[in-house]
Amino acid sequence: xxxxxxxxxxxxxxxxxxxxxxxxxxxxxxxxxxxxxxxxxxxxxxxxxxxxxxxxxxxxxxxxxxxxxxxxxxxxxxxxxxxxxxxxxxxxxxxxxxxxxxxxxxxxxxxxxxxxxxxxxxxxxxxxxxxxxxxxxxxxxxxxxxxxxxxxxxxxxxxxxxxxxxxxxxxxxxxxxxxxxxxxxxxxxxxxxxxxxxxxxxxxxxxxxxxxx
Length: 213
Prior knowledge:
This protein is an alpha/beta fold. Helices cover about 40% and strands about 15% of the residues. The longest helix has 19 residues, at about 190-205.
C-alpha cells in the first residue's frame, strides 16, 4: 500500500490509541532535540510516532558509517546531514508533523536564539562537555523551560540501572550517571535506546502535564 494516508486518518488512529484528549495535547507539543545521534534520533522517532506535533531538530553533523550501530539511519543516508536525513524519515511516519531543522553546532553564543521558542528541550549530545554547555546554558537563560538530559548508557550492562531522576524543578536526568564509553564497552544500540526511551517518555509526561517522577 503506497497511498498516502490523510491527516484525518492518522489522527483517528492516534486518538484511538491515546484518547482524543491526550492526543490533542501531544499534537500541540513543541520539543527541541539537540543532538541527533543514538539518543536524539531514537527520541525523535518515539515522539513522531505518538504524534508530537512540533519538533525542532538540531545537529551540525553528517551520518557516518560508525553511527549505524545505534542511530536511526540507513546506508543510503551516509554523508547526509543528520537534520535532513532524520526529517525525511520522520515524515515517512507522519507527513503532517511540523519539523524545523537547524544544521548548526549549539554554542554558548547561539543557544538563546536557537532554543527561545521551545518549551521543552531534550539534550542528546555524545560529548560530556557539550552536554554540560547545553544544560548550563538552559538553566541560566531559560529556567522556566523543561529540560531532559541523559548521561551513563554505554555498553551492555543492566537495563535496570538506567533511571529517570528529577534533579531540579524543571531539570530531569536519564541514565545510570556513571557508565562512560571505553574500549570494549562502547555505545551500543540496546542500552542507548533504553536511555533514549526514558528521555522520550519523560518528555511525553511533561507534554501531558505529569511532571512528578
